[in-house]
Amino acid sequence: MAGRPRDAGLELRLLAAAWALLTQEGYEPLTLSRVAADARAQRTDLRRRWPSKAQLVTAALAEHLPPVPQIDTGTLYGDLRAGLDALATAWSAPWMDGLTGLLADLHRDPAAETAFRAMAERRGEPVRAAIGRAVERGEVATGANRVLAGDLLEGPLMHRRLIARQPITPDELDAIASWTHRFLTEKAAADA
Prior knowledge:
CATH class of the largest domain: Mainly Alpha
Shape: elongated
Number of domains: 2
CATH superfamily of the largest domain: Tetracycline Repressor, domain 2
Strand content: under 5%
CATH architecture of the largest domain: Orthogonal Bundle
Helix content: 55-70%
Number of strands: 0
Number of helices: 10
Order of helices and strands: HHHHHHHHHH
Distance between the termini: 71 Å
């Protein structure tokens, strides 16, 4: 006996409902019951796909978080600075404050943490690509630590938003880009 036909748009509706709640109210008030109701679905539909709130929110972030664009300005500093603008826009969104709850839940949910790390890895690709182009141009040594460079760019944005609770200025973004550029290029000069 065949079951009910699968609703092709259900997953997209669930993710859209989760994203809407996350961006409008934050992580803490978001519940699986509310997401299911807003998506005109059953809570069991949600649980079959994402057994936890952290897994659902991570999937919603992966689906709806604006991508970090691939920007090729022709110079490492220009690429770093352009990437910082995109990251700063994301980190300045009002709903970002709610991510502290998600980060705490990731510690208790290995599947959500794995999915979150994969999403973060994908979002870091434009910075790694920019450094790869800089290596090809000879601006940076082949062994440049691309992951740490990404952390140097995004870490201050995250800290300023979640810990210091203050906006970041364009001058500070310039300084972050300069520090990261110096980190990458001074190592190249020392290795030469």
